[in-house]
Design a protein that fits this description.
Helix content is about 15%, strand content about 25%. The protein has six helices and twelve strands. The radius of gyration is 17 Å and the shape is globular.
């Protein structure tokens, strides 16, 4: 049974692995998604409905998203190597570091409280398409009538709060319970809404998923860090 996205918005804050809130155009061209240093600025195309998936990935209503949180290529100064994903919760951006001081920048939604947010370096140890979502034991203990029925997990699909893709972050071989994933609430990008995980627009997490292999480094900043220009 899919979760109702409005009921999620009205629910209590979720913890890390919960990764959800406290509560007729063409798809992106292959040329645009194959260049790690360039992003085509045709947003109607980039954020169009995606065909060929087992579940619907609808077009993004661009009027719901602040323009600065749409995907774009930017200048970015950082000591991190190309291929690293740098997450800046304070600025609400994730950067895929490229060559020559360039990066692809994605708008993100972040944890609504500082204590929910992971910090430091991790590794993408697993990638999943249409990932399964499972509420944490804390969520089930806190609201057993609401979340107990999902104790065994919710299969991937159009109503799953993780969206079409997820990247799982591990540190020292252990799951941090921190993920980069899609969202059923695109209007929340650029805000503090989740319980720690990083959410991207579905088309953006699909783009990032294609670009980063298992083993890629992810750095989640506290304060300071690289500079976009």
């Amino acid at each position: 049974m899919p979760l109702d996205r409005r009921s999620l918005l009205l629910g209590s804050p979720f913890l890390l692995s919960g990764c959800v809130t406290s509560p007729a155009t063409q798809r992106p061209s292959q040329a645009a998604i194959s260049r790690p240093d360039m992003v085509e600025a045709d947003y109607a195309s980039i954020y169009a409905a995606v065909d060929g998936e087992p579940f619907p990935v609808p077009a993004i209503d661009l009027q719901e998203i602040e323009p600065e949180f749409l995907r774009r290529a930017v200048g970015y100064r950082t000591a991190e190597r190309p291929g690293t994903v740098v997450v800046d919760p304070g600025e609400r951006y994730a950067y895929l570091v490229g060559e020559g001081g360039r990066a692809i920048r994605y708008g993100i939604g972040v944890g609504k409280e500082e204590g929910f947010n992971f910090r430091g370096a991790a590794t993408i140890a697993r990638k999943a398409q249409w990932p399964r979502w499972t509420p944490t034991p804390d969520m089930i203990r806190r609201e057993p009538q609401r979340y107990g029925r999902y104790a065994g997990g919710l299969a991937g699909g159009a109503g799953n709060p993780l969206g079409p893709r997820a990247l799982y972050l591990y540190r020292d071989g252990r799951d941090t319970l921190y993920r980069l994933h899609g969202t059923v609430e695109p209007w929340t990008i650029g805000t503090m809404v989740s319980s720690g995980c990083i959410r991207l627009l579905n088309q953006d997490i699909m783009d990032l998923y294609r670009r980063v292999p298992v083993g890629s480094r992810v750095v989640v900043l506290g304060s300071g860090g690289g500079t976009a220009v």
